[in-house]
Design a protein that fits this description.
390 residues; mainly alpha; four-stranded mixed sheet; 4% strand
Length: 390
């Protein structure tokens, strides 16, 4: 590698080749545009559901005495109808487009079957959440939005607690890392970070995605580190160690708790804005339902989704800070800057590595690969290994 951090960073970027960079740019820009198209599709679906009166018919199936059951039933009906209406768009964005860019090899049948599982889960979980939300809308008065932030915090925490043991196994197979040098290296790292060895798994992430990835999920007793089989098959031992160090950083630094706190506060702000603007959007979509009437759920969710979309720079900043901290943790504890850079370059295939600061701030959930590699090379320059190499 070249001596200066800037030259070393550019060498890593150049290793991708112009064709791969051009493809990554097209894919990433397309993802930006999908945010706008997603809002347009959401608005269209909201209008169709409101005008069809389908939720009014479901609502009329139960009397006022069965308020919670009616909320649950209407929420499930909305989830199913909206999912079916957006299915062509979802097929394009989540399967066909991913296939065309080489980001997935998942057969269409498997994609649809997993989508069906997701639909059942979102219907039940969403129905339970909306029972709580509409209870607050009816009982908490004008301050419902403040209480709703607490409901979001409880819901996110419960979902994170249950996800690794109940939800994620429905979509992927999680197994202990197989015996060998990779497992030995990972267990040493886990022991040094006081992480039980039964908290680190490999999963068949290649079932859904060809992306080089790993993640931390769960909280408390269910928290775990999961490494996609794509990462293990495409990476060197040192790259696996560097990536695992990054994920251990997320685990040790408790990023999930910070995320819950920030998202809950953000939810309060979004609900506050929703309370103020719902009447306008209800008139716009032709709905006569008040905000505390579950028949207004399509409009309510559109408004919430709109404000959360506008708040993406905030949530993206939160995740970028966490990613930088996890990179730094890996550098400080594993000290494999070239291996970390090599692993990061693999993610540049689906996340254009050279976006400008404004694009990064608005759209990127991770710092650009160029910035992350530069940080690793700066670390390397400031902390040269004693033997002259990694």
């Amino acid at each position: 590698m070249a001596d200066s951090p800037q030259a070393a960073t550019q060498a890593y970027i150049n290793s991708l080749g112009p064709e791969a960079l051009e493809l990554a740019r097209a894919y990433t820009l397309g993802n930006h545009w999908l945010i706008l198209w997603g809002l347009i599709v959401s608005a269209l679906v909201t209008w169709v559901i409101v005008k069809s009166g389908v939720l009014d018919k479901v609502h009329a199936m139960l009397s006022d005495r069965w308020t919670n059951a009616r909320v649950f039933l209407v929420a499930i009906a909305f989830t199913i109808v909206s999912t079916l209406l957006t299915l062509p768009y979802a097929l394009y964005t989540d399967w066909w487009r991913e296939t065309e860019y080489g980001r997935t090899s998942q057969p269409l049948g498997d994609f649809l079957s997993q989508g069906a599982i997701g639909l059942v889960l979102s219907s039940v979980i969403g129905g339970l959440f909306f029972i709580g939300l509409y209870f607050l809308l009816r009982r908490a008065g004008r301050a419902w939005w403040a209480w709703a932030g607490g409901l979001v915090a409880v819901t996110i925490s419960a979902a994170l607690l249950l996800s690794p043991v109940v939800i994620e196994p429905l979509f992927n197979d999680y197994q202990p890392v197989p015996e060998g040098e990779v497992r030995d290296a990972i267990l040493v790292m886990a022991k040094e970070a006081d992480i039980p060895e039964d908290r680190i798994f490999i999963y068949d992430g290649s079932r859904q995605s060809n992306n080089f990835t790993a993640n931390v999920s769960g909280i408390g007793g269910s928290a775990r580190i999961a490494i996609s089989d794509v990462a293990l098959t495409e990476a060197s031992l040192d790259e696996v160690r560097a990536v695992t160090g990054h994920e251990i950083g997320h685990y040790v630094l408790g990023h999930v708790w910070r995320s819950i706190g920030v998202l809950s506060v953000l939810a309060v702000a979004v609900f506050f804005l929703t309370a103020r603007t719902y009447p306008f959007f209800a008139r716009l979509f032709g709905s006569s339902a008040a905000i505390d009437d579950v028949r207004g759920l399509p409009v309510f969710l559109f408004v919430v989704g709109l404000f959360f979309t506008l708040a993406q720079p905030i949530t993206n900043t939160l995740t970028r800070v966490g990613e930088r901290e996890a990179d730094q943790y890996s550098l400080e504890t594993v000290n494999l800057p070239d291996a970390l850079s090599g692993a990061l370059i693999k993610t540049a295939e689906y996340r254009y590595p050279q976006a400008g600061p404004v694009e990064e701030a608005i759209f990127y959930t991770h710092p650009t690969v160029e910035n992350r590699v530069r940080a690793a090379m700066e670390w390397k320059a400031a902390n040269p290994p004693a033997n002259g190499g990694e």
